[in-house]
Protein 1
Amino acid sequence: MQHTDDRLLPWHRIFLLQLENAMRLIHPDVSIPYWDWTHVSEQSVPAWLTGVLPTVTTPTRTIVVSRAPQTSANLAMIASNVPTIMGYPTWAQFAPDINGVHGAVHIWVGGTMSNPSTAAADPIFWMHHANLDRLWWLWHTTPGNAGKNPPLSDADAVMDPWSYTETDTRDITKLGYTYA
Ligand SMILES: [Cu+2]
């Protein structure tokens, strides 16, 4: 249930935080960068990542990361929806459309990223989701949007397998990070 319109962004905010905190145990200065595919100069796989195609061993499987990116023009077409989405006045409008753009970028990268069960093995997954997290924060901090949170309750409000709740995800400064 991580990919419903209402849970996508809060759940992945915690997922990103888990990885960043884990990496900081190895080096305290590490941050997950965001891949800003809304910017024309970043509408391709970042050059420094093109050769980073790890083989990832999980407890249940081994994933050999691959990509099959489409054209920059196609990514620009996907990203062209973002200004309209950022201007939506309600969560009910914002959430499904940002989810749609999110999925389109997964498909645009292709390969490992095009399958939800393997996507997180590709390092670009984290940079894609950091950008979505950043866009959500920008929308949330737009004047008038402060109280417009995902309408989650009961089990849906718990970012399982972690104990964070939707309420915990509302303020990134309380989670200890910000966007430059
Ligand atoms: Cu995703």
Protein 2
Amino acid sequence: MQRIGIIGLGGIGNRHADCYVPMQGAELAAVCDIDRERADAAAARLGVPAFYTVQDMLSDADLTMVSVATGGVEYGSDHYEPTMQALEAGLHVLGEKPICNEIAPAEEMVALAAEKKLCYGINLNHRFTPAARLAKKWMDDGRIGHLLFMNMSMWIMNPRESSEWFQIKALHPHTVDIMRHFCGDITEVHCIAMKAPGRAIWSTAQFNMRFACGAVGHLTGSYDIERGHPMERCEVAGTAGRFVIDDMFREATLYPAGDPEKVVYTNPVFGGMRDFADTFINRLTRFVQQVNDGVSPGDIDGSGADGLAAQKVLAAAIESIRTGKAVTVS
Ligand SMILES: NC(=O)c1ccc[n+]([C@@H]2O[C@H](COP(=O)([O-])OP(=O)(O)OC[C@H]3O[C@@H](n4cnc5c(N)ncnc54)[C@H](O)[C@@H]3O)[C@@H](O)[C@H]2O)c1
């Protein structure tokens, strides 16, 4: 059983809370925000004590785990401090994406979790769907064969412009994680980007990538398209077959090479995923289950190390935009 505190009670921290309240093996025990109104509102809504500093919550609430749902510059600068405090206090941490907006602090966060032998996960929620699980099984069963290429794309509207790299750093932890999830480490990136009309940031981008396994990858993403239609597409191809996941969980289709019969998984009406919020439930439930099961920190799905690896790919992409050249991922 995990006694959980939530740090950062914006829309996303409140969503984490709503996931933990009914979850088996979890007990929501406290909320913390430096914004007293936000902390008090969440505490009243959820029936748990409010704290206004992380230190006070860690001292008084008798927790085993925290969710870090702070934001900050590029949606990530405020993750470092509370994550380090919680790890220092011996708590497991499930943090929001991006792991951090800069690489050096992210490396410290991952290193401290490893040193303390604590579970550290990132809310890389897009991979926690039945469709993604099935696609992974198709790969494990040899139905894709030797990997050849991957095409990934995701587009939403986000009008915020906290820095010119906001779209790259804040949207693409998701897409790059999905690419790494299916095809492994990315070693080289070439990225070009554009500023949509009225925008001051690189709000739409296209990446070419090389995977360590030898396969090639392509990614397109945008913060310029209003919601209403599908927002994500994932395609992986190999010598034995190709799959496409439409919109994260709606449909997964396997196209076996040389066989005109395709296999289609459609999200079921009964017992299927209802909407995007369910990706949070699935991801947070998986983390709590893994911690409760005593899984080794190195085996956490969507770990801090995964979050860091994605951010290193994005740092290389930014350098590529700056230099106009392909960049090796450090
Ligand atoms: N996984 C997803 O699909 C997904 C989707 C959207 C947003 N996000 C992520 O969720 C995070 C939060 O987003 P949001 O829109 O709720 O942000 P927000 O800025 O509205 O809320 C963050 C809250 O954290 C509080 N905070 C900051 N530092 C703190 C500290 N040291 N101690 C206590 N409280 C502190 C702030 O006062 C604020 O209330 C971002 O990192 C964002 O990238 C994830």
